[in-house]
Design a protein that fits this description.
- 73% of the residues lie in helices and 0% in strands.
- The protein is an all-alpha fold.
- It has one domain (52-243).
- The N and C termini lie far apart (50 Å).
Length: 251
């Protein structure tokens, strides 16, 4: 009976998260459709404020998705190993974002990849990954989380990439940098990313007590985050298509 109770709890948790995420998504879509210039200027769909950028970064690169995998990676190690792994993962993640941001923007220009196309690509990846994570909550036959031997080499992979720095997170960084040609704007973006990586570092350093005392709230937050990521993936696809001129006529 215990597995049934656990599945029932997960189902109730997912239902609450789905309702909350659906409400947020519906409100966002209504605001987008009711905007006065929504159909007049497709280019506006590639305009992202710094606040929106940080929200995207938090969803795609933030600490909530790191806690479970990091705890599994350090389960067989001691506290000193966990600290070293967290610090190395933080450093490698910062370096990865810096290189990806600089090279990615150059590759966009070299291969003439438009921002809307990159938005659609990032949206597809995010949608598929997030949808798979959400559906796994209903799969009782899903494999148990992988456990790792205490080895600092996993700080590069799978910790820094793709656990902390996700493929769709890299795409989001490239998009935001490409949409911010001014040097000051790029500095603000990298500063926001550094703050987020520091938040990830704190989350890794305190992963075990956080999961021990806040397990249920973190489960709920993770469920809501998963559903919002599915919606965000669709939103990125939608914005990319609108920026390309599809569906720009008034509804």
């Amino acid at each position: 009976m215990k597995p049934l109770a656990g599945n029932s709890f997960k189902a109730r948790t997912f239902a609450v998260g789905a309702l909350a995420a659906s409400a947020l998504t519906c409100a966002s879509v209504m605001a987008l459709q009711n905007g006065p210039a929504a159909a007049a200027n497709p280019a506006q769909f590639t305009t992202i404020s710094l606040g929106q950028m940080f929200t995207y970064f938090f969803l795609m690169l933030g600490p909530l998705k790191i806690l479970g995998p990091f705890e599994a990676m350090t389960r067989k190690g001691d506290a000193a190993f966990a600290r070293k792994l967290a610090l190395r993962g933080f450093l490698f993640s910062c370096l990865t974002l810096l290189i990806a941001g600089i090279l990615g923007e150059e590759l966009l220009l070299r291969y003439r990849i438009s921002i809307p196309v990159l938005m659609i690509a990032a949206g597809v990846i995010l949608f598929l990954v997030a949808l798979n994570a959400v559906m796994q909550q209903f799969d009782s036959s899903s494999a148990a989380p992988k456990e790792y031997d205490p080895d600092l080499r996993i700080a590069i992979s799978p910790l820094a990439f793709p656990t902390i720095v996700t493929p769709y997170g890299i795409a989001a960084v490239i998009i935001c940098l490409a949409l911010s040609p001014e040097t000051n704007s790029k500095i603000e973006i990298f500063a926001a990313l550094l703050c987020l990586m520091l938040l990830d570092l704190v989350a890794m350093l305190f992963a075990k007590p956080i999961l021990r005392y806040l397990g249920v709230p973190m489960l709920l937050a993770g469920t809501i985050l998963g559903v919002i990521q599915v919606a965000l993936g669709l939103a990125l696809i939608f914005r990319g298509l609108r920026a390309l001129g599809f569906g720009t006529s008034p509804v």
